[in-house]
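On clarity, I found the account of how folds are encoded harder to follow than it need be. For illustration, here is how one protein appears when written out as sequence plus structure tokens:

:::
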Amino acid sequence: MFSAAGGELPSSLGAGRIGIRLIHRRDARTLERLLRENRAWLSPWEATHPGGFSAVPGEVSLKPGIKRMLQQFREGRGVPFVITYDGDVVGQLSASDISRGALWSASIGYWIDSAYAGKNITPTAVALAIDYLFVTQGLHRVEICIRPENAASLRIVEKLGLRYEGRRLRYIHIDGAWRDHDSFAVTRDEVPGSMLERLRGPVAEAEATPVH
């Protein structure tokens, strides 16, 4: 499959038991179930609408949202993945805000089923996504923004060696209020090999909670 920018996306990208692949509309029911089962785990990190119009994740169909994400993929504006473990869908990872022109950058956000935390799944999925964005999509820069309270997710960017760029005050509406976020980034020239190779250095001990 190809994006509008010409980057080929294999049927899946993997490292051992962990993988990422393009989301399908048939994934909707599985993701809805995971969202319902992980309400307490996910709600502190979920984006909300400042006007109070936010739908409860998992309580509405994800098919329209998946359709929009796939349209953005075809237009070259994003890449929506699911995270898999032993072939089973256990979470979601999205590369969004893909910019070309003079920027060639993207942002990454993700969430994972709490039952699969602590297995180094999320760091590996993020590494796979960054390698795809750099090598196949040809991007120059990838960014991850994390709430400063999210200590486990800060450990993710530490393990991957992303560079701290500063704090964005009241940046995104999360869990009912405007929340500060710390910005971390990496550019292609900072990764002479691959992010996956970098991650496979020290063994990761901590697993991240969702990032938005």
Q: What stands out?
A: Confidence is low (pLDDT under 50) at residues 1-6, 202-208. The first helix runs from residue 28 to 37. The beta strands are 13-15, 18-22, 79-85, 88-99, 105-112, 141-146, 163-174, 177-187.
